[in-house]
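Reading a protein record of the kind used here takes only a little practice. To see the layout at work, look at the sequence and tokens printed below.
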Amino acid sequence: MAYAAWDHPEPLALGSAPLPEYGSGSLSDLLPTLAAGMAVPGMTAAITELTAADRNCVFLVDGLGWEQLRAHPDEAPFLASLLGSSRGGTGRPITAGYPATTATSLASVGTGLPPGAHGLPGYTVRDPATGQLMNQLRWQPWTDPAAWQPYPTVFQLAADAGVHAAQVSSPTFQHTPLTKVALSGGTFHGRLTGEERMDFAAEQLAAGDRSLVYTYYAELDGAGHRYGVDSDTWRGQLMHVDRLVQRLAEQLPPRSALYVTADHGMLDVPFDEQHRIDFDEDWELRAGVALLGGEGRARHVYAVPGAADDVLTCWREVIGEQFWVASRDEAIEAGWFGPPDRFDERVRGRIGDVVAAAHDDVLIIASEREPKESAMVGNHGSMTPVEQLVPLLEVRS
């Protein structure tokens, strides 16, 4: 008797994954485009829709996805009024890059490189030198930042070319390894409140004939993770972000361009077994797995020696209808981490033997290994539009 079709579901075709717009419209293309407009050597204006300015400010709002912003015009009237300015007046978003997560995206912004080149390809990844999982956001366990990410940032290259480069962010981030590898170069200025950051970012823009300034706000993302992107807390944070952007926009010195963007979007995932698959309780997914990295919607799976093919087969059979499931080589060649010809071989061992990117509103949690992450309401990481698409709103003076 023939099996019913649902007994052997077809896994999602890898070619159906919506790749980030590396090389023309991703976060890694933003600073090189701005720097090229300021005549910084070696920089290419990849986002062709943008017009050069002498003074450029990037305000990155952690977690401000394109779809979430468009869904909340009442909470963010100033930002909503700028939607048509996105991506050089085309009214279109750009993409974060894979995975759509903070450490990866900040490194993409600051270095101007895709994840497969800068080498921060996930929330947690295996360090091939030690065999341990490394949290690239918190930099635990510690490893030499310069060895982990050896390329200069765009801020460093701009400063070397005589551009006034500055970062204005929370003092907490001044000496972190992630800041060092992703956002260093020029001068870091710690300011506690969002209002102080906006005011000082405007001052730093005016401090040079050519200026490149970066500022950052994290609390919207925190509200989404804890309470969800449809919560009153998240909406309140969005209202605050709206006021901050307007405050900065009203202070721009002459010949300036302000770009408001984000590192990823976010979606709320229901708390039930259908939407939250618990790796720690699923013997099939655990079979042959030595380490589970990444995060709920963008997993790196490291197999015990000799088991990679079996793990790939099993993961495709168990979750292949809900996740794009690829081998390491397939994910690299498909361009998940950037163009294959820009992939740096030092990064290969950091990527899972199996890579799983969520298609549906589903997570692979690990309730025992990752209790805090497993309890989050809002999540991100994969290649779906709600996670990948981020604004590039523009105000010029």
The radius of gyration is 21 Å. The first strand starts at residue 55 and ends at 61. DSSP finds 17 helices and 18 strands in the chain. The first helix runs from residue 30 to 37.
